[in-house]
Amino acid sequence: MSANPINASEQARIEEEARFAERGVSLWQDAWRRLLRNRMAVAGLIFICMLIFCFVTADLLPTFGRVLPFFYSYRDADYDNVRVGPTWPDHIMGTDKLGRDVFSRIWWGVRISLTVAVVGSLTSLVIGITYGSISGYLGGRVDNLMMRFVDVMYGFPTLLFIILIMVVLPSESAIQGMVNIFIAIGVVGWMGMARLIRGQFLSLREKEFVLAARMVGAGSGRIISRHLLPNSLGPAIVSLTLGIPGLILTEATLSFIGLGVPPPYPSWGQMVNEGWRGLRATPHLTVFPGLAITLTMLAFNFLGDGLRDALDPTMRGTTLVASRRKRRKALRLAEKRREAARQG
Amino acid sequence: MQRFIIRRLFWGIPVLILVSIVTFGAMQLVPGGPFTAGASGRPVPPEIQANMEAKYGLDKPVWQQYLNYMGRLILHLDFGPSLRRPGRTVNSMIFGGNFLVDVLREELNQTFGSQASSMTFAEDPGLFDRQATVIRTNGQLVGTIYINWGHRFEAVKRFFTLAPIMVSAQVGMVSILLALSVGIPLGIISALKQNTWVDYLAMFVSMLGVSVPNFLLGIGLILVFALKLGWLPTYGWGEDWKQVIMPAITLGTGGMAFIARLTRASMLEVIRADYIRTARAKGLAERVVVLRHALKNSLIPVTTVLGPMMAAWLTGSFLVEWVFSIGGIGKFFVSAVTDRDYMLIMGTILIYSVALVLFNLLVDIAYGIIDPRIRFE
């Protein structure tokens, strides 16, 4: 048996896998395990956790400021220090044209980007699931008609649509107006989700387990909610995560062209818009918010990619899984060993 | 094939009509009209507003306005007047006016010198008119210019280089060529070298390309290559080859990264197929196997995304045209909506929709060329 030397760490992993196999690992546990093996996805996850921390503490920044020098309120103007470059430790990312601290504004701006991610995803999920499940479950002519409508909506200009929805939704306060923007951004994204759910339903509803459910007398509502929806949730979650960077991008772009979140709320896109006219003299006003947008998009992209690979093993091979190199090495070793065994 | 193309084009008509109805209805629903605020942003008195609306027929019922608009568009290919820019038509804003007039006017200037400024044409000459009548501004006849093929050729050339829609198309075309010529090879290489550092690097770079918003990329490029290094001009299009580089990279990078990832994924799928093993077993060169057998089949997903991408890019990108001050039609997609310039909204959106229908048709035709198993029904 010494012909098969397995080093300790590999031994441990194989044992762990065997334990999992014995216990019976659910899809989600398995996916989580695979996700944790993906270095970039974990990095993305950690970054997003940091963002969530920023989100929660955004209103406490003035309180922090009493102890630490580099925290300020996002809206306090300091007219003595206008357009100051990064200085340690007073304004680590400089100040803008009103003397507001850029670092604190970026910190607060996390709220806007994360809110658009959550509200936008939920909106497109709710609309997409409703529309897609009706279309996919009924099939036939209704399905055909509903999908043609989706085709037409694809040709419809995003911006007009967003402005229209923003106007139609009631807004009594600035906050509500902001949420309306996020909902509008989400509404634009429902078409992809509807297509996905519909495709899932079309293939799932012909499966035996649905027939079995129908045999025992389950109604349409029960079949949809208990059998079809849970089985199409994996791809939906992946598509949702992969869609989040798009939502953040849309919000940043809208704010960049001046149609997004109104001041004084510091949206990153709006900060870039205010900063890039003075690019030569004060590059810090553009570079730091720009970095914030890019890093956030990267984090969500890596996480979404990792999730897709973790939930759908057949799609393997599109992300950087750290252990794959090792796995290949192990395979090569095994091959060699087999070769040696055959000859010897 | 011919029947397929004709039928698909025929199917495009109801789609276009539906898009036009939805857009026409939706823009009327948005509060505020083109005349609610003047150029300075001050509110316009309701009487004046009513008069202006009457002038452009906006006081009529919506369905009547729609029929008028579509009638004029279909019969005369006339997108109507711009509601926010007095004296300009949507046609001239998108297609850049009558270039033949410019060409003939230059000839007038050459013959008559300073006198030419007091002369106009009795009516604007069309491309296939034999001659144009020249009159003085007081109505007195000067003579006629015979339009030759030189004039026509010059006018067409100017249309292709100067017309806003063509400027947008040029920016889009260069960007698409960049995206394809870098994205596809990058995808192939990282698929062939799967799980090596080449693959990791290429995929990291492409992930970066997907993640950087293109307006930020444009601003970053300006910061580095124009302001810090001073190598490239910060704005403009069509005067200098250096002006091409930054807009093309800005617009093309996102698509390039996307295409690279797509090519890699489908290449990985294809390269494990049995027929690839067969091709290798026959002893074909690796180059032939990759380029002829594998690549062709892995291009199907790339072709699919190319349709909407080309439609969007060739009709102009608002952000790129704004950041680099390029005079294309991309900026109208935003400014028309914020100005509530109804005619311009309809014009830009119909042009985009036509492009979408046409490029999706092209994609379907390309499917048949790439993969003969796909039949046209």
Strand-helix topology:
The complex is a heterodimer of chains A (344) and B (377).
Chain A: H1 8-23, H2 27-36, H3 39-57, H4 61-67, H5 102-138, H6 140-154, H7 158-168, H8 174-188, H9 190-204, H10 208-215, H11 220-231, H12 233-256, H13 268-275, H14 284-311, H15 323-343
Helix pairs in contact in A: 2-14, 3-5, 3-14, 5-6, 5-8, 5-9, 5-12, 7-8, 10-11, 12-13, 12-14, 13-14
Chain B: H1 2-29, H2 46-55, H3 62-76, H4 90-95, H5 99-112, E1 119-121, E2 131-136, E3 141-146, H6 149-162, H7 164-192, H8 197-211, H9 214-228, H10 242-271, H11 274-281, H12 286-298, H13 300-314, H14 318-323, H15 332-339, H16 342-370
Antiparallel strand pairs in B: 1-2, 2-3
Helix pairs in contact in B: 1-16, 5-6, 6-7, 7-8, 7-10, 7-13, 8-10, 9-10, 10-12, 10-13, 11-12, 13-16, 15-16
The proportion of strand residues of chain A reads under 5%
Oligomer: heterodimer
The H-and-E topology of chain A, N to C, reads as HHHHHHHHHHHHHHH
**Overall residue-averaged pLDDT value of chain B:** 84
Q: Residue ranges of chain B: pLDDT <50 for 5 or more in a row?
A: none
Helix content of chain B: 55-70%
Please count the beta strands of chain A (DSSP E, at least 2 residues each).
0
Radius of gyration of chain B: 26 Å
**Largest sheet of chain B at a glance?**
3 strands, antiparallel
Provide tags for this entry:
heterodimer, A: about 350 residues, mainly alpha, 15 helices, about 0% strand, flat, B: about 375 residues, 3 strands, globular
Walk me through what this model shows.
The complex is a heterodimer of chains A (344) and B (377). Chain A is an all-alpha fold and 344 residues long. Chain A is built from 15 helices and no strands. In chain A, helix 3 (39-57) crosses helix 5, helix 7 (158-168) crosses helix 8 and helix 10 runs antiparallel to helix 11 (220-231). The longest helix of chain A has 37 residues, at 102-138. Chain A is flat, with a radius of gyration of 25 Å. The two termini of chain A are 15 Å apart. The model of chain A is unreliable at 315-322 (pLDDT under 50). Chain B is mostly helical and 377 residues long. Chain B is built from 16 helices and 3 strands. Chain B has helices spanning 2-29, 46-55, 62-76, 90-95, 99-112, 149-162, 164-192, 197-211, 214-228, 242-271, 274-281, 286-298, 300-314, 318-323, 332-339, 342-370, and strands at residues 119-121, 131-136, 141-146. A 3-stranded antiparallel beta sheet of chain B has the order 1-2-3, with helices on one face. In chain B, helix 5 (99-112) crosses helix 6, helix 9 (214-228) crosses helix 10 and helix 11 (274-281) runs antiparallel to helix 12. Chain B is globular, with a radius of gyration of 26 Å. The N and C termini of chain B lie close together (9 Å). The model of chain B has no long low-confidence stretch (mean pLDDT 84). Chains A and B meet through helix 6, helix 7, helix 12, helix 14 and helix 15 of A and helix 1, helix 8, helix 9, helix 10 and helix 14 of B.
